[in-house]
Amino acid sequence: MIQINQLSKVFRTEEVETKALNDVSLTIKEGEFVTVMGPSGSGKSTLLNIVGLLDSASSGSYQLLGKEMVGIKERGRAKIRKQQIGFVFQNFNLIDELSVYDNIELPMIYNGVASSERSKRVQAMAERLGISHRLKHYPQQLSGGQQQRVAVARALINEPKIILADEPTGNLDSKNGNEVMELLTDLHAGGATILMVTHSDYDASFSQKTILMKDGMVMSEKQQTKNIDIVVNS
Amino acid sequence: MIKNWIHIFYYNIKNNKLFMFLNLIGLSIGISGLIFAILYWNDEHAYDAWNTEKSKVFEVINDMGENGEWYTNPAPLGPHLLEESDLVASYCYLNNWYNGANIYYNGEKEYSEKILDAQSNFFEYFPFDFLQGDKASALEPNSIVLSQKLANRIFGDEDPMNKEITYSNRKMVVKGVYKLNEKSSYKPEAVINAIDERLKHNEDAWGNYNFGLLIKLKNPDSKEKVAKQMETIYYKNKLEPSARDLGITPQEYEAKYGGFLIKLQALKDIRLGTINSGVAEGQGNRQFLLIMMGVSILILILSIVNYINLATANAIKRAKEVGVRKIIGATKVDIIKQFLFETALMSAVAIVISLVIVELVLPVYNDFLNKDLVIQGGLIYTQLVCIFIVLIIMAGVFPALYVANFETLKVLRGNFGRSKGGIWLRNGMLVLQFAIAAFFIVGSYIVYQQVQFMSTKDLGFKGDQIIEIYLRQKNPEAVFQRYETVRNEVAKIEGVKEVSTGIFDLGGGARSSSSFEYKGNNIQGQNMAMDFGMLEMLKIPVIEGRNISTEFASDTISSMLVNEAALRVMDEKNPIGKSVTWNGEDLKIIGVVKDFNLFGLDQDIPPMVFFHVKTIDWMQYNLDKVFVKIDASKMEETIARIETFWNSKIDDEYAFNYDFVNKKYERTYMQYVNQKNLFSVLNIVVIIIALFGLFALASFSIERRMKEIAIRKTLGADTKHLLITLTKQYVVFCVIGFLIAIVPVYYLLSGWLENFVFRISISVLPFVIGFVALLVLTLIVVLGRAYRAVSLDILTYLKYE
């Protein structure tokens, strides 16, 4: 599903040239749940942004669903973003001026989904994530956990091929954090492809594969052996 | 403390250079507009303010119904009034126009254009300071009283008192010198007292409205009563005898010819009064003054709104500063003081800049108003202080309160940048700005249309290449003979195509007006006395019958023509050959003249009666110009030749003086052309200020929404979607603002158009143009700003907020 080859990203200021990504190669298969870990400045967020087409690479190749993504224009990127990718952020990134309903509906508007269809899908999604009773509220009126559920609902509403999560539990207490992780695990169990950046070993333990990054390079890649069910029950 | 404030102020200016600069310029332009208007206002209100008699002196005006207002009165009215009313202290007959003539002293001549003929108590009505002579007795027949300036021009260093001068072939002795007050409804350079003689000739002539009349009341409150008394005097002395002569009852007479309606206007109200007035200096343009005041206040509001919008938008950026100040102990009042202080600094700088602008533009403005305004005197400085205080209150208090009420904790927690506080107010003010801008665009387009209409309208006559030369009469007994000589000689000059005369001004009307009766209808006609060929020269067609011609001897004895307007009142289908009794003479109608605009376009076409000058003997006394049509290709040299001939053969006393008929007519609506030009300039100013406000507000608002934009982009919104999202609300505001402006602009401009009898009707076009212009400008500004925002790197806003 995702094929990254020798991908580099260079940030230039007047004096310094920083390699945020240095010849990174990586493959994510369909249905995989992959975690990226590493200290601050290791390039994990940059990687996620490039995969999410929010940022572009300096060199190398990035193929999504068999298509080359490096070098395509913003218009093309916007199209792929809205059709194939769902984002979940640490700080939720909901639009405060819009209600929960409107927030969840937004990606469908950009995708040109018919209005009646939109309403049906928002209702169904809210049901699935247990936020039906919150649809008329505004983000500021919700708890962090609820806000993140809304963000997840928004990320899933277009049935994207891949979900990108940038420290999704970073702003949540452990109870709410757990709930979000369970949600992602459920999604994974349902067949979703997930790429998640996190600082937390605990969160990482939910995934199948963990990539460890440092100084813009992939240090190691290990398969998870832990049984998820045990964690949930503990 | 103040030092600290100044540091912060300076820092903010440095970091918002462009906005601060534009804001300051906007405010300065707004203030200078108001200063201009105030200077004009002060100048107009200074008229007659010096005059200690201003509340007691009243101008007598006759309301003649559909024949307009007459500012002249018959000679017997004053004496009768004084005799019969114990409410009146005195009266003073005077000309309500100046004579321009040479004054001779020791063989030298000095031209004065403002010589006034008034009764001897004139200086009780206009108590100018006397430098020499006795105010009470200076004015008598055969004496002349001079203003200081004219006395200096005539006599230089010599003492003018009791010197003999010659004016209009009469010897006169200087009996006084006065210091003229510049702001006066009568501002003569010299005053003589020849009017008494003319009054005496007319002492029983109740029908000759020839003289301006001022009366002084013992108590100003009795003005209504006195007006009634005058109407009674007219009734007894004019109406009843006339009715008796006609053998009808006074009631029948009144029903047929109308009664008498007197208006008294106090001197203090004359300059800017709602009642028209006939004083020699004329009235101020009250309507235009109000327009100027209103418009300048609108512009100032516009710039203050900009200031408030920017200040509150900017305040969000400064929320952290305020939070920190509060935590270390500042009270609300301290914060308010600080922000008021900043507004005070800005206002002070803006006022200084605006004074510079005013100083620079004042000469142009003076040209435009035909005045000599200066920034001087205590009044304007007091007013500047008032403006300063009002500015601080209007522009300063709201932002200061807004900032002072920030919730400290919210601010420091850091998510205040997206607060919605004040957004309604800002949007409301934006709508107001749109409304003002729409008002100006639509309004000035309507003014433009009307002026365009006037300058292209077919007036019914052609004044091209026709000049009128002013001919001063010498011997009152042989006026027409002299004209005939001049005509015959001028006609011989190379380049001259036609020569004739008419005792009327195109744009000003005939020199006299008389009424006559036909089929029981009373027609108040303009007396269009003329020489042969006058109508032909002006290309005014005779649509029925024939014009006067040298071929018919009767055409200088008993022939007359009427225009269509007169014919309508006469109610006559076949006028040719009909007889009319006109002022006791039997005249026969030989033709009908097509209607043309004798007055300016603000007035209707009046009934007119045309005849040869010789037909009515006394007409020639008003003959004072010669109309000459000149070959277009030889215009300049021909005028030069006429001038040479004129100066050597016709008049060596006075300078050769001529005017183009076309240009003279254009001057009747010149003030509206000027208004149009002024509005065009103001339009640009208003649009610039409003657009800048929009730009700044859109910038702040979009900046506030950067994170939202970033999120939407992440969710896959493309540029088009984002631009629509960001622009939508401004288009809505623009539409609302425009809708708000429609009614006031329609109402006020309809009122303005009522100045004209010949006017356009307000069409949809100005509104369509105004709307499209406003919308396009809005879209340019907002889209430009939004596009820049959308093109920015979104990651910054996702991550670091």
TrEMBL record, chain A:
SMART domains to which the protein is assigned, alphabetical: AAA (SM00382)
Domain ABC transporter: start-end pairs: 2-234
Annotated keywords: ATP-binding, Nucleotide-binding, Translocase, Transport
Molecular function (Gene Ontology), one example: ATP binding
Matches recorded under Pfam families: ABC_tran
SUPFAM superfamilies recorded: P-loop containing nucleoside triphosphate hydrolases
Keyword ATP-binding among record annotations: yes
Similarity-based family: Belongs to the ABC transporter superfamily.
Record's protein name: ABC transporter ATP-binding protein
From TrEMBL, chain B:
Topology with respect to the bilayer: Multi-pass membrane protein
ABC3 transporter permease C-terminal domain boundaries: 295-404, 681-792
Lineage top rank: taxon: Bacteria
Domain MacB-like periplasmic core: 21-232, 435-644
InterPro entries linked to this entry: ABC3_permease_C, MacB_PCD, Macrolide_Exporter_MacB
Localization annotation: Cell membrane
Key words, A-Z: Cell membrane, Membrane, Transmembrane, Transmembrane helix
Principal location class: membrane
One Pfam family, short name: MacB_PCD
Keyword Zinc set for record: no
Residue intervals passing through the bilayer: 21-41, 288-310, 339-358, 378-403, 424-448, 678-702, 730-750, 756-783
PANTHER family (alphabetical): ABC-TYPE MACROLIDE FAMILY EXPORT SYSTEM PERMEASE COMPONENT 2, MEMBRANE COMPONENT OF TRANSPORTER-RELATED
Protein name: ABC transporter permease
Source organism (scientific name): Neptunitalea lumnitzerae
